[in-house]
Amino acid sequence: FFQVHTFLLNALHSFYMEEQCLKASVNTCGDCIKSGSGCAWCKDLNFTKAGEQEAARCNTAAMLRDKGCSSNGIINPKNDFIKTKDKPLAPGANPVQIQPQEVQLNLRPGLPQTFQLHFKRAIGYPVDLYYLMDLSYSMKDDLENVKQLGNNLLTELTRITGNARIGFGSFVDKTLLPYTDTNEAKLQRPCSDKSEPCQPAFGFQHVLSLTKDGTKFRDMVAKQHISGNLDPPEGSLDAIMQVAVCVKDIGWGNSTRLLVLATDDGFHMAGDGKLAAILEPNKETCELVKNKYSKSNLWDYPSVGQIARKLEEQNIQPIFAVTKKMETELSKLIPKSAVGVLSEDSSNVVKIIVDAYNNLTSEVILAHEALPDFISVKYTSDCKGGESPSERGKCDNVNIGKEVIFNVTVTVDRCITSQSFLIGPLGFSEKMRVNIRTRCECECDDSNQPHPHCGGNGKVVCGSCSCDPGFLGQRCECKLGQKDEASLKAQCRKDNGTECEGKGDCLCGRCQCYSTDSGGNFYGEFCECDDEHCEKANNTQCAGDLCHGKCKCGKCECDQGYEGPACDCVKSDKDCMTDEGVCHERGKCECNVCKCERGYSGAKCKTCSSCQRPCKESCVECLAFGTGPFEKNCSKACNHLKQETVERLLKYDCRVRDKEGCWMLFTMTEQRGFDKYYVKVLQARECPEGPNIAAIVGGSLAAVALIGLLILLIIKGVLYASDLREWKRFEKDRKHEKTSGTNPLFQNATTTIQNPTFSGDS
């Protein structure tokens, strides 16, 4: 039933995909195949009509058959599923649990392919169990019991699987504050009881690699002693990371890998290292030196996400054996993990491990490697609850010898060269390899010689012509000559737009238009017209079946007596009529309703809230007073105004200055139509009076005389002030002469006598 159900689902999906072909820009068969998984190509030579675009060859297979394409002419690549021959088992190799081991998929982009993966739990499949124990001081009693369980645990696992190995490791925490007391004496002996054996503080140490020797396990564990630290959380994540990545040191084989973590406390996580100034994140690499974790005090703790990823990569299934108070949440975060509650002294650890092993191995979770976004993988199964596709396949209660079947559906969204990835059940090292290639090219087996269908100027490629250099066209009929291809194609572009408006082919510089979807044709110089896209009324074009008009190049041409964008109205102007004509001659009457123009509104275009009277109207001066710019052709230039001159005007709308500088006062009353007014002009203009020449001349002379008189008075005043100053000084000197008896102006006479005979040289 499950296989029939799967077959029907695949068939329905293929049918649905085949019925869709959302073709985009398609010129060749390859373009068609890549444009959608439901697209097919017709390679029949005469499938396309003259002038029809090659994209018409691309459609669903059903549509191509309906249009006359022969069955042999339809190219519709499908997916290929190739099961690679399984490799024979080598002597001593583990039994095979997965079939097939390798497949090859040749996929069409967007078309899913489903195949089956069979999983059957084999008898005697080996088990590797690594026991990782917390050796902090609180686990003292537990260590004593673990020292005795080696043979018991190995015997029990061997009984179940027939092939088991066991190993041992231990951990405490980083040897830094605040995790551990860093006093030298405390580092060497961190235990509080000085009478019992105690080993120095450490992070993680690998004690025993995986072995079948239970006695060796017991002896090595017997040599272990308890240690100690300060804070309750332990460094268990550090230890788990090293156990997962140190594959060679631990000795992990091709087996079911189990990691038992025994602890009675919580764990430090990523970021806690900052408390000890550790800032470098965990690098997920093996760092064991002499079986001890060498980067314990240098790297931060790993995150739970890092732990989960590494355990999954290495197919390790963790079993958390913890005390009742510390029942961990880790198993909810890590797939394929189990939790068991330890007794106070860990005496039930063997039962916990056996029960967890049975639960883990009976749960089969199918998963794949990380993949790029363009590849998706979905799973269904024949198990209960596995009918719905999901990111992972899951089956519960799969006992040894039981076979389960998973349906794996792979989809590739785009063309790729090749891609490989692994699919397998978590916790098992056995995987199936999936190799993917895509089918993105057409295989038409055409001749490489010139073909008569292409006029001998090209060869046929999947039904269409591939022209030789210097030729183009649907049948290579156009020779380029002196013009290159770009120049010819430019002639087919309107206003540098799309070639032939995207509705035709440019052949030798002229557009050959396509057919429309309804069987009509595009037409016009640039294929810009068709008769199928006009205005509609009541969802019918140009009044449709009522035959009131015809669609011509995107516009309705109405029959006589009809009008409107869709010819849906009887021509009438009854409701548009006024005493001043249809719509006051300010609009058109369409479908018996006024369509106003130039800002006019109202049922009959009577008002215009945004219009203003044109007061700066030169025609008023011309009509009323015979002056102004239009005085020579007044009757012709101003026939839109009717003017009347009046002696009295109670109020006026406009006050405008004319050519002579006078103010004209007038009113303007709007008439029907646009820019038509009835103007009443006041006969008397407000003109400024001329200048008084006599007053101007008289005033000027008076001003000159006044200015001259003022200047004379100023000069006279200056001279008078100077004379007054000299007179006062004279009067002062005269008074001084009367008191001293001498005239200050008088000077005594002087006498000079000279002997003519006297010579100064003797």
From TrEMBL:
Main location: membrane
Occurrences of domain Integrin beta subunit VWA (ranges): 28-442
Spans traversing the lipid bilayer: 693-719
One GO cellular component term: focal adhesion
Domain PSI as annotated: residue spans: 20-70
Disulfide bonds: C29-C39, C32-C69, C42-C58, C191-C198, C246-C286, C383-C395, C415-C654, C440-C444, C462-C500, C467-C476, C478-C492, C506-C511, C508-C542, C513-C527, C529-C534, C551-C556, C553-C583, C558-C567, C569-C576, C589-C594, C591-C634, C596-C605, C608-C611, C615-C622, C619-C687, C638-C662
Family: Belongs to the integrin beta chain family.
PROSITE patterns for the chain: I_EGF_1
Topology of the protein relative to the lipid bilayer: Single-pass type I membrane protein
Pfam families documented for this protein: EGF_2 (PF07974), EGF_integrin (PF23105), Integrin_b_cyt (PF08725), Integrin_B_tail (PF07965), Integrin_beta (PF00362)
Domain spans labelled Integrin beta subunit cytoplasmic: 716-761
Keywords: Calcium, Cell adhesion, Cell membrane, Disulfide bond, EGF-like domain, Glycoprotein, Integrin, Magnesium, Membrane, Metal-binding, Repeat, Signal, Transmembrane, Transmembrane helix
Highest taxon listed in the record's lineage: Eukaryota
Domain Integrin beta subunit tail stretches: 611-692
SUPFAM superfamilies named in the record: Integrin beta tail domain, Integrin domains, Plexin repeat, vWA-like
Localization in the cell: Cell membrane
GO molecular function, one term: integrin binding
Name this polypeptide is given: Integrin beta
A biological process term (GO) from this entry: leukocyte cell-cell adhesion
